[in-house]
Amino acid sequence: MSAEDRAECIILIEEAVQAGARKVKACEILDIQIRTIERWKHTPQDGRQGPHSKPANALSQEERALIIETANSSEYANLPPCQIVPKLADEGKYIASESTFYRILNEEKLLVHRLKSNPRVHKKPEELVASRPNQIWSWDITYLKAVIKGTYYYLYLPMDIFSRMIVHWEIHECENSDLASEMIKKACVLQKIQKDQIVLHSDNGGPMKGATMLATLQFLGVAPSFSRPHVSDDNPFSEALFKTLKYCPSFPERGFASLEEAKIWVEKFVNWYNNIHLHSGISFVTPASRHNGNDVKILNNRHDVYVMARTKNPSRWSKGTRNWSQIKEVELNPRKSEEKLAA
Fold it and tell me: What does pLDDT average to over the chain?
């Protein structure tokens, strides 16, 4: 412990004693023996002295240089010391122990990724904001279990993040970039999407980043956006939709008997989700009504009902009526507040 730290401990204990605490208890709190405190008060400087001579078994400058040269060589630059030392032993060589390798590399600030072993840094996707329908879509593929063990059907499903409406869906017996590109083509035709109108966000799966899919998006004038690898939070709208789908009470736990049965069930689910389900993320209107612009009338009507109820029984309302305003913007991968202030 440094002289400054010792002095600070003495001051803290003296202040505690003056406040009425027992010195023994104060020392226990700091995990210091009372005899140690008394010694520090009489001899504030540390009387211990380190060794005056260099250890006989210390590494020479040549040995130290050899360790650094070996670790940075083309053969070992991508390996940690825990692999370098055994490989050297297999070649009949011993330079130093594994711990010595770690210590020397750490002192030289070389205990980091070297050359190609340096991992790729994945930045958070760009913040996207949707203020109207057909501006930002999110899509993904999920597995639908079949009754035959080990067999699955694949649901391709894009949705509009502003309205939460499912804009198209398809089910296939496999997943690949060709099927994905054809699905997006059909979705754009159904929604009458023009070039440079929408951003399509997805994860990093093969069908999403395949050459065919990327070429199709370029042809359609659709801007691609991707999540970071293994980060599901970067694609939250699709993840939430799939959770709603698979936790639906009518979802067959034992799986679908056929591809046709899966299509029939998903068709019913999409109709419920788009046209009947009151979505909590969009002020409890249906995705279809928000997508078609009918949500403003519905929300205004709700506001009028609440105002009228408050007028009839004002004593039952301690505050204003519930906020039924339309949600104007929906953010995808929003930046943190401190990041926005810095920008």
Answer: 88
Burial letters 61-88, b for 16+ CB under 10 A, else e: eeebeebeebbeeeebbebbbeebbeeb
Q: Tell me the average pLDDT across 293-309.
A: 93
Angle, helix 61-71 to helix 98-107, in steps of 10 degrees: 90
Contact predicate 201/128, CB 8 Å: yes
The structural domains of the chain, with segments of one domain joined by +, span 3-42, 62-114, 128-282
Q: Which helix (H) or strand (E) holds 302?
A: helix 295-312
User: Which stretch of DSSP H or E encloses residue 194?
Assistant: none
CA-based diameter of the chain, in Å? 95
Identify the bridge partners of residue 129 per DSSP, sorted by sequence position.
Answer: 331
Class for the domain spanning 128-282: alpha beta
Q: Of 115-124, 195-204, 217-226, where does mean pLDDT reach its minimum?
A: 115-124
Q: Return d(Cα 95, Cα 92) in angstroms, integer.
A: 10
Beta-bridged to residue 170, according to DSSP, are 156
Instruction: Give per-residue pLDDT as tens, 36-82.
Output: 888 888 776 666 666 667 777 788 889 999 999 999 898 888 788 88
The pair of three-digit structure tokens given for residue 54, joined into one six-digit string: 């260099």
Structure tokens at 150: 């080990």
Residue that the structure tokens 């009458």 belong to: 192
Q: Are 34 and 23 in contact (CB under 8 A)?
A: yes
Token readout for 343 is 């920008």
CA atoms of 91 and 88, how far apart (whole Å): 5
pTM above 0.85, yes or no: no
**Could you tell me the sign of the dihedral formed by the alpha carbons of 212, 214, 220, 224, in that order?**
positive
Q: What's phi and psi for 248, nearest 5 deg?
A: -65, 135
